[in-house]
Amino acid sequence: MSRVLIVSVLMLVLSACNTVQGIGKDVKKGGEVIEKSAK
């Protein structure tokens, strides 16, 4: 269930980006969230 939530949030965040640089930042933040939730 938590994976579905994380993926949904990532999709929402990524869809809000307008630039390639913004996408990179969002992917990095998404990775950090996944890393924290795995601990």
Q: Note poorly predicted spans.
A: none
> Main sheet?
none
The SSE string, one letter per element, is: HH
The whole-number mean of residue pLDDT values reads: 77
Helix content: over 70%
For the secondary structure, the number of strands is 0
Query: Strand-residue fraction?
Result: under 5%
Number of folding domains? 1
Termini separation: 17 Å
Overall outline:
flat
Q: What's the total helix number?
A: 2
Roughly how many Å is the radius of gyration? 10 Å
Overall SS class: mainly alpha
Highlighted features:
mainly alpha; Entericidin B; 2 helices; 39 residues; membrane; 85% helix; palmitate; signal
Topology of helices and strands:
Elements: H1 2-15, H2 20-38
Helix pairs in contact: 1-2
Protein name: Entericidin B
Family: Belongs to the EcnA/EcnB lipoprotein family.
InterPro entries: Entericidin
